[in-house]
Known about the structure:
Elements: H1 2-5, E1 10-12, H2 20-29, E2 34-36, H3 51-60, H4 75-85, E3 103-104, H5 107-115, E4 133-134, H6 142-152, H7 159-174, H8 183-194, E5 213-223, E6 229-239, E7 242-250, H9 253-267
Parallel strand pairs: 1-2, 3-4
Antiparallel strand pairs: 5-6, 6-7
Helix pairs in contact: 5-6, 7-8
Amino acid sequence: VAARTGFRIGIHCQDDTGCAVANTIAAVEAGATHVQCTANGYGERAGNADLFAVIGNLTTKLGMPVVPRPRLGDLTRTAHALAETAHISPDRHQPYVGAAAFAHKAGLHASAIKVDPALYHHVDPDVVGNGTRILVSEMAGRTSLELKCLELGFGLDDLEALSRAVARIKRLEAGGWSFEAADASLELLLHDELTAGEPGGQGGPGRPFPPFTPLSYQVVERRAPDGAVVSEATVRLSLPGAEGAEGTDGNGGTDGGADTVGSAPATGR
Length: 269
């Protein structure tokens, strides 16, 4: 149409059939120069063409400098900031910017990533401000855990300990645990298995590594003079050589409890 009429053509796609981004890209290839999208595809019914997917495709696939190349690194941060502003949970599976866009769970995938990330990555995650994530689950093998150890800063000198950690994870996952979205729990388990016998290491094979033992907690919500609701969490912990309680305010009980637990070791209480 653009070539035949000489008119400037624009495109506006809804995502009712899941084709909004694809149709937008096809329209640009056919001569459209005005493209309408929405951040994260927000819109009525099934939404609109996702601005970040369109920018990613036009820039990295078609070589169209619709934004300066260095600014592509802001895509992920911007997408998540807008989701937070809109009070909408970010889509983990959103192309380019989702938390799972460059995440790998199966052992075969992790092995391939170790050899060459391009085998499974259609673009370098860093280009769009994202990153590679290795998910550890009952499907993970030693390669997956090796990559996760490097991500979390653990050494790989003790292969026997690493094998123990893999077996322990599979055993716990079979019992109902899930480490896929629990990096902190995984880090504690790895600390237990991989640092036994090291200077300053704690825990050991088959033994838990609790940096503290929770004894009790209480969450109280109170209304401030300005009408705001404040959650106050008090947690009693047992630390090595000490026992005490710590209390903090937070944005909800979970936030307050997390802040309290985090501050207690720092204060030694």
